[in-house]
């Protein structure tokens, strides 16, 4: 049993070494030590504002925070998964999976926001609120943004 665990550990370490070398160009301990982590402002902007995220041509892992941060979760989600056939996804399959997930999340956010705006507008219609046109404009802007982002 201990031999199996040792074998599994060695296999996983080899996979991690390949990942670090292929994705981050890290092949030696010194490369890891001097690895430039994700820019804190970029991470903050991505997680709490509407920042673009990491540069796909220069992927960086946020080493200063836990692996469960939104930044690192997105990075991990973009890694190839093992398919039902027991092989890794191709680049095209990863891209398709991420597009489907993004579209699903985008639709969910849109539906939630639309529902909230519809309720606000209904409440505003009942009263004599002067800002009703602003809420209706916001609702239309949300529709335009959703349609634009889907394309």
Rg (C-alpha, Å): 22 Å
**Average predicted local confidence, pLDDT:** 78
Low-confidence stretches: none
Order of SSEs, N→C?
HHHHHH
Sheet with the most strands, sense and barrel status:
none
By DSSP (H or I, 4+ residues per run), the number of helices equals 6
Proportion of strand residues: under 5%
Helix/strand/pairing class, anyone? mainly alpha
Distance from first to last alpha carbon: 53 Å
What shape does the CA trace take?
A: elongated
Number of strands: 0
Oligomerization category of the chains in this entry: single chain
Helix content: 55-70%
List the helices and strands and how they pair.
Blueprint: H1 2-24, H2 29-33, H3 40-48, H4 70-77, H5 91-126, H6 132-150
Characterize the structure shown.
The chain has about 150 residues and is an all-alpha fold. The protein is built from 6 helices and no strands. It has helices spanning about 1-25, 30-35, 40-50, 70-75, 90-125, 130-150. The radius of gyration is 22 Å and the shape is elongated.
Summarize, please:
The protein is mainly α and 151 residues long.
Structure keywords:
mainly alpha, 151 residues
